[in-house]
Design brief:
The complex is a heterotrimer of chains A (about 350), B (about 350) and C (about 300). By secondary structure, chain B is an alpha/beta fold. Chain B contains 13 helices and 14 strands. Chain B folds into two domains: about 240 residues, P-loop containing nucleotide triphosphate hydrolases (Rossmann fold), CATH 3.40.50.300; about 90 residues, no CATH class. Chain B has an eight-stranded mixed sheet with strand order 8-9-10-5-11-12-14-13, with helices on both faces. A four-stranded antiparallel sheet of chain B has the order 4-1-6-7, covered by helices on one side. In chain B, a hairpin with a 2-residue loop joins strand 2 and strand 3. The longest helix of chain B has 18 residues. The C terminus of chain C is likely disordered. Helix content of chain C is about 70%, strand content about 0%. The chains are: A alpha/beta (about 350), B alpha/beta (about 350), C mainly alpha (about 300). Chain B: It holds the Pfam family ABC_tran.
Chain lengths: ~350, ~350, ~300
């Protein structure tokens, strides 16, 4: 059984304009030690997934349905006390802005000791030793002196390393990293990502990496989800999706990258922009921007504008797209006839 | 004259080439960190001394931009690339050095004398959420520069011009009465580009124009900028941290580190054969989609603060090829056989 | 591109705004606004609402002095709220007094805002020496209380132009005094938000365009600092009305022949012991209700317009 199993997750926000469905029909699993990427543009709902896993959705949002099972335990109905035993302890989070997580008036060492003592029966001295050990694991130069430093004395890259050390402090089963390197420079980002990947491999920790950067996902994760307007539209092994994306949105996203085009040529842009969650178009949310809305003979693909597509299996991937479903059906027919 | 600056040397080297549209020589900018005079007084050894600290944002930058090209300045945060852009546009006055536009010095002009240049040079900003005045409609935003630079135009002509630039950047003509906050980031950036194009400039400084946007929108805006260049014969100074964008967009690239230019080359040359160790590390760190790429070059250490600049080569603390000379002596940009210019002792000595 | 909807009109924008939305849900704010509007209307319509003209000596009869309000024995039906020590109808004189108080309150705030906005804008946008000079000036101004300004200005005016001039132009003098004494509040608020706006890229964009400093300051920066100006204005009006009342109570404000709420309270104060409490307490109650409703409205406005609570 998978370590983490998310079924039909449905998150809603009660806003002035009415109820907005921030997430719908989100399904995925994470095995022990597996690295999963969640990719999407801003507003796709990828951060909402991260927050809802630990039930950190603040009002006016709430989990309206679905289940999140972690190690056999259901998390959605769990009370604050039960969640606290899991948060930080068995599932820890890394945020984009390290300064949001670090308390500016406490030294790094104090924060790490506090965190350990909150979850474990451990003496101050032992806790300090554990903290030092974790700082060594994240390859911080001169870790002993860092323990007594304050967050503002560290550079951005260093702070993010400290955050990773804190995330590892209680030997969690899963680390959720929400855009952990977006605020950092490329060279630092490469280091942090390599470090995160190494640590997860070495300690058999599951990783959920949330990012907008397809390159990062491709480098770090084994499986990935692509999200659009609050839904997962494609999921499967990272390499297969990167090498052969099925969903028109994933294709468009990848082809829009400058590294995919000949220098100086026109980039393949996706027209328009993501709809706001309160004004989703009917049917497939992507259809107004989709190049395949019109068939080769010029007729419109009515299903796209009318029905929300179901997932179809394509190889090891699952794709929610009418066009892909039609193509698969066409491919399958001769095989069926042969079988007859 | 005993020492030629790099820009002059280049000039001498190629007398046949046309003069650059924009030329920056020996540009330096430092920002005071120490407040006003009273804040600077300190007691030291029983005496009152004036203590001042500076951020050395740019330390001697030479750049020349030829008409029609897109020069990309690339580097990580704090390398001074945005300061270069803002100094060129006269938003910051340089501490030393000179800026020439079409041969004329523009860094010491009065606002009035600068006005004709404002029409020829325009700027596009990073954050489309802050670069449009929230209290002005799109129509007002776009009309303002036209009215300023063409005081003799009548209402009709101004309106026609606004309609023209709106069409050029692909925004609907009936958006004019609405305010910036009603639009998405990509649409706002289009409006900001329209504002820059409204006075028909020939030179545009773009300071990270796509880094605040989503991937699918980045492509739209890059395409728009490239179309505008083709149709309007524009010259760009393009500031970015994203090397993938540079490879696609740039004619030439200048790589900056800690306020100095460490390598200048044509885009093709730079991406095929990066010479400076920093450029190499930067290139290897781009997260690529392919899985068979080599491991990124891991740099050790941290970027030093621009307050206390390291001695010698600014990169020596993180450079895998640093030698004692690098700690002592500041390298200068030297022309290479492939036409690029690199500021590195190791390259000069043939070690790299 | 996106579906193009026509631009919303000003009225539509107001109707869809968060301001109106939260106003509709806050009965406290509605009540305060209703009371304030009622008081302002009453003050504006004083000449038509008041049964007598308290400024007209011919209509005053000293024999009618100290008549109690209607719910007390011995009241005269002609004077619903009773009369004061000079025999003036209290209802009429409160209407006129509120008018004077509101006039001074709004007038002083207008002057404060004018001075404060211009100085704050210059200090914040131009910075450097101008900033240092103007802000030190504000500090000095703040170290004088309104009372001291009133005494000094009063003394100077009386000495040079005569006491008659001062009491003839008391409204103008009070506007001047309260306006001069409290402009630094505005200057500081405006300066702080100008410093915030100045860093935004639309100001850089305006500079790159070639616009002059004056146009950038007034056309681009100022409209974006209006929200905090609006918010502190409510509190400042309440403060100015209180200041005026305090000055009048001390005899530095409106003369008794042309009373404001403050001078009415003072005039009645001497009769508080002799049992004619209404002469002081009724105008006092009006003053409290007026100031309270303005302040509560200001609090609500600050909560609603606080950009940290509502991003839009």
């Amino acid at each position: 059984m998978a370590l983490l199993e998310v079924r039909d997750l449905d998150v809603r926000f009660a806003l002035r304009q009415g109820e907005v469905r921030a997430l719908r029909d989100v399904n995925f699993t994470l095995d022990r030690g597996e690295r999963l990427g969640i990719v999407g543009e801003s507003g796709a709902g990828k951060s909402v997934v991260a927050f809802s896993l630990l039930n950190l959705i603040a009002r006016p949002g709430h989990i309206a349905g679905g289940s999140i099972r972690f190690d056999g335990q259901e998390l959605t109905g769990l009370g604050e006390r039960g969640l606290r035993r899991i948060r930080g302890n068995r599932i820890s989070m890394i945020f984009q802005d390290p300064l949001m997580t670090l308390n500016p008036v406490l030294s790094i060492g104090e924060q790490m000791v506090e965190c350990l003592k909150a979850h474990r029966r451990i003496s101050r001295r032992e806790a300090r030793t554990v903290a030092l050990h974790k700082l060594q694991q994240v390859q911080i130069p001169s870790p002993a002196t860092r323990l007594d430093q304050y967050p503002h004395e560290l550079s951005g890259g260093m702070r993010q390393r400290v955050i990773i050390a804190i995330a590892l402090l209680l030997d969690p089963d899963i680390i959720i990293a929400d855009e952990p390197t977006t605020a950092l420079d490329v060279t630092i980002q490469a280091e942090i990502m390599a470090l995160l990947r190494e640590l997860c491999e070495k300690h058999n920790v599951g990783l959920i990496l949330i990012t907008h950067d397809l390159g990062v996902v491709s480098q770090v994760t084994q499986r990935m989800l692509v999200m659009y307007a609050g839904r997962v539209i494609e999921q499967g092994p990272t390499r297969e999706i990167i090498n052969d994306p099925q969903h028109p949105y994933t294709q468009g996203l990848m082809n829009a990258l400058p590294q995919m085009a000949t220098p100086g040529s026109h980039l393949n842009q996706i027209r328009g922009s993501m709809p706001s969650l309160s004004q989703l178009p009917p049917g497939c949310a992507f259809h107004p921007r989709c190049d395949f809305m019109h068939r080769a003979d010029g007729s419109a693909r009515h299903a796209c504008a009318e029905r929300v597509p179901d997932f179809v299996a394509s190889g090891n991937c699952r794709v929610a797209c009418h066009m892909v479903a039609e193509m698969l059906a066409l491919d399958a027919r001769p095989a069926e006839e042969e079988a007859r | 004259m005993t020492t030629l600056t790099e820009a002059q040397a280049q000039h001498v080297a190629s007398p046949g080439s046309p003069p650059p549209l924009l030329e920056v020589r020996g540009l330096r900018k430092r920002f005071s960190l120490s407040g006003d005079f009273l804040d600077q007084l300190r007691f030291k050894g029983g005496r009152l001394v004036r203590h001042r600290e500076f951020v050395h944002a740019i330390n001697g930058v030479d750049l020349a931009i030829q008409r029609g090209e897109a020069l990309c300045v690339v580097g990580e945060s704090g390398c001074g690339k945005s300061t270069v852009a803002r100094t060129v546009m006269g938003l910051i006055s340089p501490s030393a050095g000179e800026i020439r536009y079409a041969g004329e010095r523009i860094d010491r002009l009065s606002p009035k004398a600068l006005l004709p240049y404002r029409k020829r040079m325009q700027m596009i900003f990073q954050n489309p959420y802050a670069s449009l005045n929230p209290r002005m409609t799109i129509q007002q935003t776009l009309e303002e520069p036209i009215r300023l630079h063409h005081p003799d135009w009548d209402r009709r002509r101004v309106r026609d011009k606004v309609t023209e630039v709106m069409a050029a950047v692909g925004i609907e003509p009936d958006w004019g009465g609405r305010f910036g906050h009603e639009f998405s980031g990509g649409q706002r950036q289009r409006i900001a580009i329209a504002r820059a194009l409204a006075v028909d400039p020939e030179f545009i400084v773009a300071d990270e124009p796509i880094s605040a946007l989503d991937v699918s929108i980045q492509a739209q805006v890059l395409n728009l900028l490239m179309d505008a260049q083709r149709e309007r014969d524009l010259t760009y100074l393009f500031i970015t941290h994203d090397l993938a964008v540079v490879e696609h967009f740039g004619t030439r690239v200048a790589v900056m580190y800690l306020g100095t230019v460490c390598e200048v080359a044509t885009t093709a040359t730079l991406f095929a054969t990066p010479r400076h160790p920093y450029t190499q590390a930067l290139l290897s760190a781009i997260p690529r989609l392919e899985d068979d790429r080599p491991q990124p070059i891991r740099l050790t250490g941290e970027v030093p603060t621009p307050v206390n600049l390291p001695s010698g080569c600014v990169f020596h603390g993180r450079c895998p090829h640093a030698e004692p000379r690098c700690r002592r002596e500041v390298p200068v940009l030297r022309p290479q056989a492939d036409g690029s210019r690199v500021a590195c002792h190791a390259v000069e000595e043939g070690r790299l | 591109m996106t579906t193009s909807t026509p631009a919303a009109s000003r009225w539509q924008r107001l109707r869809d705004s968060y301001l109106l939305y939260s106003f509709k849900r806050d009965w406290g704010a509605q009540l305060c606004l209703a009371i304030l509007l009622a008081l302002v209307t009453m003050a504006l319509l004083a000449p038509w609402l008041a049964p007598t003209d308290p400024y007209d000596l011919a209509q005053i009869d000293i024999l009618n002095s100290e008549l109690p309000p209607f719910w007390i024995d011995g009241a005269d039906t002609r004077y619903a709220l009773g009369t004061d020590a000079q025999g003036r109808d209290l209802w009429s004189i409160i209407l006129y007094g509120t008018r004077v108080s509101l006039l001074i309150g709004f007038g002083a705030v207008l002057l404060q805002a004018l001075l404060g906005v211009v100085f704050g804008l210059l200090a914040g946008y131009l910075g450097g020496r101008i900033d240092a000079f103007l802000m030190r000036l504000a500090d000095i101004q703040l170290s004088f209380s309104t009372l001291m300004v009133a005494i000094v200005v009063g003394a100077v005016v009386k000495a040079t132009l005569g006491g008659g001039f001062y009491s003839n132009h008391a409204v103008l003098m009070l506007i001047l005094i309260i306006g001069l004494a409290e402009w630094p509040q505005y200057a500081r608020t405006v300066r702080a938000s100008v410093l915030g706006e100045k860093r935004k890229e639309y100001v850089d964009a305006a500079k790159v365009m070639g616009l002059g400093s004056r146009r950038i300051m007034f056309r681009h920066v100022l409209p974006n600092t209006l929200t905090p100006i609006f918010v502190i204005s409510t509190v400042q009006v309440a403060n100015a009305i209180i200041s005026e009342a305090a000055l009048s109570f001390l005899g530095l404000g409106m003369p008794e022949t042309h009373p404001s709420l403050g001078s009415l309270i003072k005039a009645g104060f001497d009769y508080l012991q002799s049992g004619s409490w209404w002469i002081t307490l009724v105008p006092g109650a009006v003053l409290v209700v007026l100031v309270l409703s303005i302040n509560l409205l200001g609090d609500w406005l600050r909560d609603v317009m606080n950009p940290r609570l509502y991003k839009g």
